[in-house]
Amino acid sequence: MKKSFLLTVILAVMGSAAFAQTEVSASYLYSSPQQRMGRYIQGASGFNVQGLYLVPNSRFAVGANIGLNTYGCQSTRQTYRFSDGSSTETDVEVSNNFFNLNLVGRADLLGPGAVIPYVMGQAGYNLYYTSLFIADPNDVDGCKPLENRSLLKDGAVSLTGGAGVRWDLGSVIKNAGMDRFYLDFSASYTGGGRVRFMNVNIPAEPDPVAHQHTTPGSDAAPFTTQFINPSNRIVHEHHVGDVYASPIQMLSFKLGLAFRVGQ
User: Fold this and answer.
1) What is the CATH number of the domain that holds 21?
2) How far apart are CA 16 and CA 70, in angstroms?
3) Which of 47, 202, 209, 252 has CB 3.0 to 4.6 Å from 31, enough for a Cys bridge?
4) Per-residue confidence (pLDDT) for residue 131, from 0 to 100
5) Average pLDDT, the chain
6) pLDDT tens-digit map of 117-128
C-alpha cells in the first residue's frame, strides 16, 4: 500500500511538472553502505533519473526521482553431484539489487551563476531484492530448479539529506546558453528502516549431498533453493547465499547531467 501510494504521488508530481518550468537529470550513482550495513555490502553502482519543478521567483525546487542499484552479481558454471553418482553442469546466476522511489526537495544557496551550491532532502521507499536464474542443462540426468524467480524481497522507508553543486555548462560552452545545461554532483546520507537482504556466496565446488558450506556468522542466515533430478525425482537443496538484516545506512555520490525545459 505504501509503495503504491508513493508511486502514485511521484507520477503525479512528474506529470504536473511536465507542463511547467522543470529540470530533468540522469546520473550515475555510487552508494557506499555504512556501519552495520557496510559489514555485508561493499558498494553499489547504478543510475538515477530525477524530475524537479522549479518554484517561480525562488531558489526552491520539488519533485521526485527513481533509482536502480546493483550491489552484487555472480555467474558461475557449477557441477552438482548427487548421491546416486550422477552429476550435471549448469550456469547459476544470482543478482542483488535495490530500487528506490523518492520525493525530493532542493534549495539553492546562491542565485543563478556559473557554480550553484545547494542542499537537498528526500523521503521515499527502498526495495531490496535478489534474483536467481539457473540455466536448463538440457540433459537427461540434469538438475532443474523447482523455482526460477526472485529469492528475496524486502523494503523500508527512508530519509535522505545531502548537499551538492551544479556547474552551468553555458559558462564554458557558449552555444549552450546560460541556465540550461548543468553538470550536477552531490553527496548524501540515507537512513531508513530495517531490511532483509542477501549477499551472494555460491561455493566454488558445491556438495549438495554433504551440504558442507561455510558456516555464516551469527548475523547471517543461510539461504537454499530446491532442485530436482529428473531421472530419479530426488529433491536436493543447494546453498546460494546468506541473508542479513540491517537498518538502511548509505552514503551516496551522484554525478550527472541536468537539462532545464520550459524556460
Assistant:
1) 2.40.160.20
2) 30
3) 252
4) 81
5) 77
6) 999 999 999 999
Separation between Cα atoms, residue 181 and residue 168, nearest integer Å: 6
Domain enclosing residue 86, as ranges? 2-261
Structural contact between residues 2 and 8, judged by C-beta atoms closer than 8 angstroms: no
The DSSP result for 216-251, as a single string, is P-TT-EEEEEEEEETTTTEEEEEEEEEEEEEEEEEE
Q: What are phi and psi of 18, to 5 degrees?
A: -65, -20
Residue 122 is inside which H or E element, if any? strand 115-134
How is the chain split among helix, strand and coil, in percent rounded to 5? 10, 65, 25
Task: Please answer whether residues 81 and 208 qualify as being in contact, where contact means their C-beta atoms are separated by less than 8 angstroms.
Answer: yes
The candidate with the shortest Cα–Cα distance to 193, out of 261, 126, 140, is 126
pLDDT digits (tens, 9 = 90+) for 240-259: 667 888 899 999 999 999 99
Length of the chain: 263
Per-residue pLDDT at 153: 87
* Percent above pLDDT 90 for the chain: 40
> In the chain, how many domains are there?
1
* Collapsed DSSP state (helix, strand, coil) of residue 217: coil
How many Å apart are CA 25 and CA 52, to the nearest integer?
Answer: 9
Q: How far apart are CA 106 and CA 173, in angstroms?
A: 26
Per the CB < 8 A criterion, the answer to whether 132 and 76 are in contact is no
Rounded Cα distance between 186 and 28, Å, is 11
Cβ contact 48:27 at 8 Å: yes
pLDDT band at 17 (very low <50, low <70, confident <90, very high): very low
